[in-house]
Known about the structure:
Elements: H1 16-24, E1 52-53, H2 77-116, E2 121-124, E3 134-138, H3 141-172, H4 180-207, H5 210-216, H6 222-230, H7 239-264, H8 271-280, H9 295-336, H10 343-346, H11 348-351, E4 356-362, E5 380-385, H12 390-414, H13 418-446, H14 472-475, H15 478-491, H16 506-509, H17 520-527, H18 542-548, E6 578-586, H19 591-617, E7 626-634, E8 638-640, E9 648-650, H20 652-669, E10 679-683, E11 686-692, E12 698-704, H21 713-730, H22 736-744, E13 746-752, E14 756-757, H23 759-771, E15 775-785, H24 789-812, E16 822-826, H25 827-830, H26 836-839, H27 846-853, H28 856-866, E17 870-882, H29 887-910, H30 912-918, H31 924-938, H32 940-956, H33 960-980, H34 983-1015, H35 1020-1037, H36 1049-1054, H37 1056-1069, H38 1087-1107, E18 1123-1130, E19 1136-1143, H39 1148-1173, H40 1178-1181, H41 1249-1263, H42 1270-1307, E20 1314-1327, E21 1332-1342, H43 1344-1378, H44 1393-1399, H45 1401-1408, H46 1434-1442, E22 1445-1446, H47 1451-1460, H48 1483-1504, H49 1508-1511, H50 1543-1548, E23 1585-1586, E24 1597-1598
Parallel strand pairs: 6-7, 6-13, 7-12, 15-17
Antiparallel strand pairs: 1-22, 2-3, 3-4, 4-5, 8-9, 10-11, 11-12, 13-16, 14-17, 15-16, 18-19, 20-21, 23-24
Amino acid sequence: MSAMRHRPMAPPGQGAGTGAAGEHGDSDDNNFTDDESSPLTHDIYGGSQRTIQETKGWDVFRDPPIKIETGSTANQECLELTVKILKIFAYVITFIIVLTGGVIAKGTMLFMTSQVRKDKKMEYCNKDLGRDKSFVVRLPEEERVAWIWALLIAYALPEIGALIRSVRICFFKTFKVPKTGHFLFVWLMESLSAVGMALLMFVVLPQIDAIQGAMLTNCLCVVPGIFGLLSRTSKEGKRFVKVIIDLAAVTAQVTGLVIWPLLENRRELWVIPVACVMISCGWWENYVSPQSPLGLVRALGRIKEDMKYTRYFCHIFLSIWKILLFFTVTLCIYWAEGEEPGNLFAMYGDAFGPHKIIVYELPAGLGGVLPDTLESANIDTVDVDAAYNTVVYVLLLQIFGAYLCYIFGKFACKILIQGFSYAFPVSLTVPLSVTFLIAACGIRIDDPCFFHDTIPDYLFFTSPSNFRFNNFVTEQMAWAWILWLLSQTWIALHIWTPKCERLATTEKLFVQPMYSSLLIDQSMALNRRRDDQADVKTEDLSEIEKEKGDEYYETISVHTDRSSAPNKPSIKSSDNITRIYSCATMWHETKDEMIEFLKSIMRMDEDQCARRVAQKYLRVLDPDYYEFETHIFFDDAFEISDHSDDDIQCNRFVKLLIATMDEAASEIHQTTIRLRPPKKYPTPYGGRLVWTLPGKTKFITHLKDKDRIRHRKRWSQVMYMYYLLGHRLMELPISVDRKDAIAENTYLLTLDGDIDFKPNAVTLLVDLMKKNKNLGAACGRIHPVGSGPMVWYQLFEYAIGHWLQKATEHMIGCVLCSPGCFSLFRGKALMDDNVMKKYTTRSDEARHYVQYDQGEDRWLCTLLLQRGYRVEYSAASDAYTHCPEGFNEFYNQRRRWVPSTIANIMDLLADAKRTIKINDNISLLYIFYQMMLMGGTILGPGTIFLMLVGAFVAAFRIDNWTSFHYNIVPILAFMVICFTCKSNIQLFVAQVLSTAYALIMMAVIVGTALQLGEDGIGSPSAIFLISMVGSFFIAACLHPQEFWCITCGLIYLLSIPSMYLLLILYSIINLNVVSWGTREVVAKKTKKELEAEKKAAEEAKKRVKQKSMLSFLQSGIGDNGDEEGSVEFSLAGLFRCIFCTHGKTSDEKQQLTSIAESLDTIKNRMDTIESAVDPHGHHASRHGRRRTTSSGSKDHHLLTSVAEKSGDESDESDSDTSAEPKQERDFLTNPYWIEDPDVRKGEVDFLSSTEIQFWKDLIDQYLYPIDNDPVEQARIAKDLKELRDSSVFAFFMINALFVLIVFLLQLNKDNIHVKWPFGVRTNITYDESTQEVHISKEYLQLEPIGLVFVFFFALILIIQFTAMLFHRFGTISHILASTELNFCKKKSEDLTQDQLIDKHAVEIVKNLQRLQGIDGDYDNDSGSGPDRIARRKTIQNLEKARQPRRQIGTLDVAFKKRFLKLTADAENNPATPILTRRLTMRAETIRALEVRKNSVMAERRKSAMQTLGAKNEYGITTGAPTNNNGALPNQRSARVSNAGISIKDVFNVNGGAAEQIYGSNGGGTINQGYEHVIDEDGDGNSLRLTTRNPHPHPHHQVSWSQNTNGGGNGTGRL
């Protein structure tokens, strides 16, 4: 029987794949299908192994699953279209702003340098002075000083920005001090750059015209060009051609430096080459490479690598030094020109204040020619007032133009639109500037008054003399400038081919921390990093193929290390691949909730399969590739079995999960799917079910028995953390560096059992993780799902909480709570000190129960924050969860959340000093913000009470004291009820009061509106209300997808007293209640417990009757229940009168029952005697489930429990009355639950001894069940009540004092008040007697405390609203970065077919792997519309569905079936599928796919030619015997390595096909009573080896399996 698990034997050279292929009938799939073709849809529930599904002719009618679009699958077409339109706008607007900002910055820089020229003379407009005269102006020294200061400020501002950024990062984050030699070299290069900039600004550009200056800025790439040339390595493709072009580019740059000094023969122009070369030194770092063939460049490359860690420390000093050096060189230049340097300071006030401009009137004889001297006596002068503000306006234009260019350019890089919106406008800046300058200078020369109303007439660009456009080409060196522009474009070619990931950090995008304002376009081009590859390079993805061969999934590779990183040779490239473990906790979810969760997992499975298959068969590299595995931890998964109290079975919720798996898979894949039954594993903590999903990811359900392991959600989280990160990672036999890299890229996706999400939501969270290595956790936007008023309230509450509160936390600090229902945690962060270990702390104090167990996800985030990690929020990552729909369930949920939130925030605030020190993202201001929120929370009930008092006064026109009494009475009564009554009564009263308050609130709203009408719009209440409503509305508009949440705002408003007063009181007063409160169900009881309850109820009934009135009259007669009378009457059942009473005769049934009970008692006593006489009888073989160890005891090692008897030994269960001997059971070998037919008839397997020992040790150490020790429980209950009492007292006193102070101030407002300056009412009265008009002003009077609170809440609102705006911008950037516009990049026609396939590989695979239609299914929605229904081919489709067909249940097999039939000759082969409407598949594209298919098949055939003997480098033979159960005998593990682990463990830890997911080495026994299936993953005993070839083929991997029936030879799988 066990041989049925193994692969069918096949001749050498074909391997196991041939048999599988033959089974499918696809003859051309030989050597291509590698045991993946075993369908998951075998009809084996009833024992059949058919692979052909036959349908009876009368039973061909179908009921296919209907695609329901709700939650995450709701129609997103409108949103997607909106986002695409938004991205088009982003393309265009970013392009315009970058180009406009660059041109303005460049133009204003040239304008400023034009005014710096000494003794500048230019023609002045004669419009205001005399049209028949000519005028000339010479700029005074004051004007020149102003423009020099403008250039100094423009240069210094970005450096000041770099200084602030460097100080912030070094102060709040970590930094490294550079080596002295490195620092001195960087200092030298930066100093040269600063000196060169000063020479260019104050010597070169003032001496040449503006057009020549603009052209000259294209000649600043000499040093980068030389270093780029010297950094070319032999590994580059077409190196020779690139070197030739590099030489040509450098030559062109050099010609630009010397052409004007040579042609114009002016001495001062020889500063040009010096200044330009010195400036270009500033960008050296971006162009040196550690891999250069030259030693000098390699040394510079090492400095560059060191600068990654020391840059900000260096720039603290370099920024200040560069400003001082630039200013010093400016003073030197000013002095060298013959001026007094002190004038720069002495004339500063006049330069930026009113001063005169002298205009000279030219004699008529000069004819417009400017004279060399203007001092002749016969020239008249006119004094004109200077427009001294012009320099400020130009400076502001320069600053903002450069800043906008930089900011929007960085935005373009982050959202991946760099080509069109960054590189293109940066490259166009100089050509466009030159064009505008040519036009402006030409116009100004022809008409000096053209810009009269725009620019002061005495200011303009330095224009070329005798300028004519037709002479421009020859005289202005336009032909040479084109070469300089092209050479700069070549040297900065990297900006056209970015490789960064989405939302890359500034450090990954740019070399220098800031831009250069005066040379903005050169700074943007040359400062943009050339080596900005993502951390997880696409090339690394191929490592998985090399490591795991044909294996479909491998969590962690444990093969021989190969060098892939220069600094840590032991790290393999594949260690950086993203690994996602989805870890869900389940308890008592409904079917609908389970289906939503399972559909989400199925979507992830489908997406991961498409990415894996695209990489494997289409040979494309996907940067978003991830490996995926699902773990569900089912709390309290077992109950007492129906047939015996001593056995356990899976409860109805587990069975519901099993039953809904197929339904969920069918809904996702839109065709009927029956998954293979789960593989069952007995485990030390209960059990495990393992499914293989259609995409071949593993779905593992851990069934927890609360009598063997600690239950509740926090302990489930401890289970998966220690299992996945401890056992399966830290126990790997690999190097520490590899473990570190794997942990860095391993993520735990924590989920609830009712969550609904799409793969894209997870991808967005992974993006955040990749962007910031210090990110410990990230959460998405949680949307509540359900119906009813409570859900409507939560819709608005969740919306406001995410829009404002979480966004603010994200922006100004860290998110304090990443909810466990949908969050991504970094494995390495959880493994840090004081996180995972501290999370296992058992609750021994009352405070622990509140902080640790009531809000475990918030506590886990608090631990991460206290270790320095960041927690972020991604608004674009949407998830949908079911929220409480009933009032009681909602109140109980918040009864857990409110105290735990307060406890965790108080813990963080108490530890604030240390947290600020260790966490870079938490500042004192953020702690102050949280203190304000905490104060608002604590004073919330008092604030709401005062609001109600004031609202009653306004709405019902009553005095303050009456209103106070009306409000205080119900609140005090509710507090008394909460202290004295049971929870259900408290909730009933809360519900009644909430309803009443909702009605009152409606009246209050009307009254408040009337009051606002009286006080006016300027009153503080009106301002605050308008601001609050306005902020909510703007927030809703900025979240268009969630806009309709704001319609629930009215319910939120009506519920304010209930939620912020009653709920807080209910939560605080019930602090001592630590039950979960939601999803509670009645546990199944044993017969013994039911009898005990029945007897207890009867006894209680008797006691009540005996204590009732007139019971003494009934003494001696019996209870009323035993009496009947000849005459009886009653009134509506309220009472009964009996006359002539006599004892009731017992009927036959009661007598028989009494006899049966007596017999049971005798039988139980006989059993007790037998067990004492024969202790080895069947009683000893039974295994009870009650633990008897104390809560402090951990010595329960094998977890075998002793039967616990209540009372004496004679009180046994009815289930033991059977005379036949019971089957001996061991919970680790043959527990009863694996035989349960509702768990499906799947294969049974067993854990490895290593994993069993791990679980036993983990349970002993942290997870042993806590016994119900009455003494300990009484102590905890007492401590919890004391904590409750002290908390309530403190809470009550703080609010009482607050209410008392504010209320008394309100009563005495006439004496103590603050006059509100707005909303003043002016009263005008006329006194007829005196005929006087009296005008009086009436101010609103505010009590001081109330005014403080108005400002307090207004400040919080402003902070949250501002932070929301910034966060919204970040979210939009994230969405835009994830959105692709095919028509805004290359059109499909412009792409080669291979590029088209690479671009759409995942989409192609998703369409080819669809299960719908693979078996000839027809579209169940075909034929819609009035004219098409009649044309539906109903009968033809039904007949087609009747035909026998082979089912294919795995996605990759469906892909290969279609992939193999792909042919460009679509006419002759109609099997070629239509992939998608959006992706046009032309014959050329299909032909390119066909080429890849043939290439893959050729590689497989070549691989299949290798035999096991030829490649068996490990010298292991296949002749080892197996035992009867198909398992290898123990001798196989006798060979032990030096590390103390077996050879099999070395190669198969988490690595075998069946074992890699759950750590088994396959040595278990197979239960013969269960049907076995052909496992496409191979049998559990196969040993997979990796050859020692340093470059192995992806499929050169060997394994074998054996026939336990003695027939056939072991065949190598190739």
